[in-house]
């Protein structure tokens, strides 16, 4: 077939029917407070790493919840575990522990 | 003839007193302070119709002028006892009063914003509460930390509500619409001033609230940002710098403002918590717990002891008036049943 230089891109919508939530379920067991997040963004507002990099802990939460874990291991490396997010969280999510557990899970630990 | 004691001369207490009195029941109304309606006196205008709060004060105060209502100011009830179908109330100086039923309408207090130290209330002059803003609107004197006209005003929702760090999981229910109301009031007076509202969810639950929100966006060009402010700091020229995240964009955000208005939530007043504990009717967070939120919302677990208004949970003025009336009807029904059964004996 003649190549016109165009191609159909893969669909970009989240296909929640095919989402793999296994890691999320395991993360919830290790840190149940994760389920309480209501996306206020105080964690990322106060985050030291956030001001200089693309690191966004609130977004990482959401990606993790939706099973979009492909690039998270790399992203999570920006966190210095200072724990300010844990101090400000109005829902009492233990973010520092959560991040450590995310890293472990993503590395099959 | 039955007597009902009402503790707290706020909106709910007065409305209940009025309904009871006009049905021929004697009311003893106790108020800790020197005057009635303390909390609503502080307000300028009420949502959703921007009616002057002073008008409501006048209307409600007039309801106290009844031969059946006896009002006791500067009388703090500190103890309640039940003996032989009647209640004995004791005030601070040891005086005792007798009644057949007691209505607790001891109300709320606002959250102490200095407990959220990172927001800077009590540290920076430009950080104020929604109550301070209400006063500025009432006396038409909206000024920044150095008494000049502010250029940028920021409202922050959920201060002391929906916050595990201060122990309040609940939503105070009326701060959302209050911020929208105050933002509009500011814009009416200072059209050049930039006004932003930082929110997590805007809960426009009441009649006319959503329309106010729409008006705030469309007519008054108020800037709504989805995010919670994590901290404020002073700038070299005495303004404020706030930090947040625009969670819809996923980007961190800084803003320089002249005034940061903290929308403080409602907590039970000390009177509410004290009486609640003494009578064992204390529920979550120190509010008084009603017997059943659907079918017995003015009754408590103790017979003859009733509850109305913000002693129970955060409520609007509208809600309080309705709740006061509903309490009066509940009490009247119970007294009638009681009298009938004692007559039958």
Describe the structure.
The complex is a heterodimer of chains A (109) and B (345). Chain A is mostly helical and 109 residues long. Helix content of chain A is 41%, strand content 0%. Chain A contains six helices and no strands. Chain A is globular and about 60 Å long. The N and C termini of chain A lie far apart (48 Å). Chain B has two domains: 3-107 and 269-344, FAD/NAD(P)-binding domain; 113-265, FAD/NAD(P)-binding domain. In chain B, strand 12 (152-159), helix 5 and strand 13 form a beta-alpha-beta unit. In chain B, helix 1 packs across helix 8 and helix 4 (130-138) runs parallel beside helix 5 (175-189).
CATH superfamily of the largest domain in chain B: FAD/NAD(P)-binding domain
CATH architecture descriptor text of chain A? Orthogonal Bundle
Here the CATH topology of the largest domain in chain B equals FAD/NAD(P)-binding domain
Overall helicity of chain A? 40-55%
Pair with the biggest interface: A-B, 19 and 22 residues
Can you give the helix content of chain B as a percent range?
25-40%
Count of domain modules of chain A? 1
Percentage of residues in DSSP E strands of chain A: under 5%
Count helical runs of chain A.
Answer: 6
User: Are there runs of chain B of 5+ residues with pLDDT below 50, and where?
Assistant: none
Main sheet strand line-up of chain B = 5-2-1-9-20
- Through-space gap between termini of chain B: 17 Å
Structural class by sheet pairing and helices of chain A: mainly alpha
């Amino acid at each position: 077939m003649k190549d016109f230089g165009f191609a159909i891109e893969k669909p970009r919508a989240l296909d929640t029917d095919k989402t793999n939530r296994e890691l999320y379920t395991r993360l919830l067991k290790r840190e149940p407070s994760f389920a309480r997040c209501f996306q206020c963004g105080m964690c990322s507002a106060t985050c030291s790493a956030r001001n200089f990099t693309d690191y966004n802990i609130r977004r990482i939460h959401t990606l993790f919840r939706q099973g979009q874990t492909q690039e998270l291991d790399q992203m999570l490396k920006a966190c210095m575990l200072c724990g300010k997010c844990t101090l400000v969280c109005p829902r009492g999510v233990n973010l520092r522990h959560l991040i450590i557990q995310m890293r472990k899970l993503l590395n099959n630990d | 003839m039955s007597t009902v004691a009402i503790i707290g001369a706020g909106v709910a207490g007065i409305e209940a007193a009025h309904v009871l009195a006009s049905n021929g029941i004697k009311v003893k109304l106790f108020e800790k302070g020197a005057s009635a309606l303390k909390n609503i006196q502080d307000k300028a205008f009420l949502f959703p119709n921007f009616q002057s709060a002073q008008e409501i004060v006048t209307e409600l105060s007039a309801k106290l002028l009844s031969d059946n209502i006896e009002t006791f100011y500067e009388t703090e009830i500190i103890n309640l006892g039940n003996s032989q179908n009647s209640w004995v109330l004791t005030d601070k100086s040891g005086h005792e009063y007798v009644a057949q039923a007691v209505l607790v309408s001891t109300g709320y207090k606002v959250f102490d914003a200095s407990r959220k130290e990172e927001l800077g209330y009590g540290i920076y002059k430009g950080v104020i509460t929604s109550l301070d803003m209400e006063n500025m609107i009432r006396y038409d004197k909206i000024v920044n930390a150095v008494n000049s006209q502010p250029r940028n005003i920021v409202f922050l929702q959920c201060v002391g509500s929906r916050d595990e760090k201060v122990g309040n999981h609940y939503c105070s229910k009326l701060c959302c619409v209050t911020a929208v109301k105050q933002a509009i009031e500011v814009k009416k007076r200072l059209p050049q001033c930039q006004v932003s509202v930082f929110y997590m969810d805007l809960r426009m639950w009441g009649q006319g609230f959503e329309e106010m929100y729409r008006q705030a966006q469309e007519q008054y060009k108020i800037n709504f940002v989805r995010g919670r402010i994590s901290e404020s700091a002073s700038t070299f020229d005495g303004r404020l710098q706030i930090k947040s995240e625009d969670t819809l964009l996923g980007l961190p955000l800084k803003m320089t403002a002249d005034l940061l208005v903290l929308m403080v939530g409602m907590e039970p007043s000390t009177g509410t918590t004290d009486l609640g504990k003494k009578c064992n009717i204390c529920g979550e967070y120190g509010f008084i717990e009603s017997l059943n939120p659907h079918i017995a919302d003015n009754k408590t677990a103790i017979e003859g002891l009733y509850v109305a208004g913000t002693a129970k949970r955060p409520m609007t003025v509208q809600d309080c008036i309705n709740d006061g009336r509903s309490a009066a009807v509940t009490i009247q029904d119970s007294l009638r049943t009681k009298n009938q059964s004692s007559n039958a004996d």
